[in-house]
Amino acid sequence: MSNQVSAIKKISSQLNDRYRQFLELDTLPSHMPLAQLDYFLTQAMSRHYHVKLHLAGQDAPTMSGYLSKGPKDTYLVSAPHQKLTQLAHLNQINFVERVDYLPY
After folding, report:
1. Which of 55, 69, 85, 104 could form a Cys-Cys staple with 78, CB 3.0–4.6 A?
2. Is residue 46 part of a domain?
3. Helix or strand or coil: residue 81?
4. Could you give the number of structural domains in the chain?
C-alpha cells in the first residue's frame, strides 16, 4: 500500500513539474543569428521595406520605419510621416520584422 502511495506522489510531483515548465512565460527573447540579421537588414534597405526593429532589453518593437546605413555598424530608422529619424547599433538589434501595411 505504501508503495502505491509513494508512486502516486512521485507521479503527481512529476506532473506538477511538467505543468509548471509548460506554463513558463518568462522565456528568453529570440535573437537572430548575425548572418541572418545582416541579410535581413540589407534586404530591407535595398528593397525599401518598412520594418520594425526589436531591440535588446525591450519587449515590444522599439523602432519602426525605413532603414538606411549609418556610420560603422549603425542604422538610421526614418519614419517619414512622423518626420523622425532614430539611430540603432547592430549589437542592439534582436530581430527585424517586416511591416506589410502602414498604420495611419
Report:
1. 85
2. yes
3. coil
4. 1
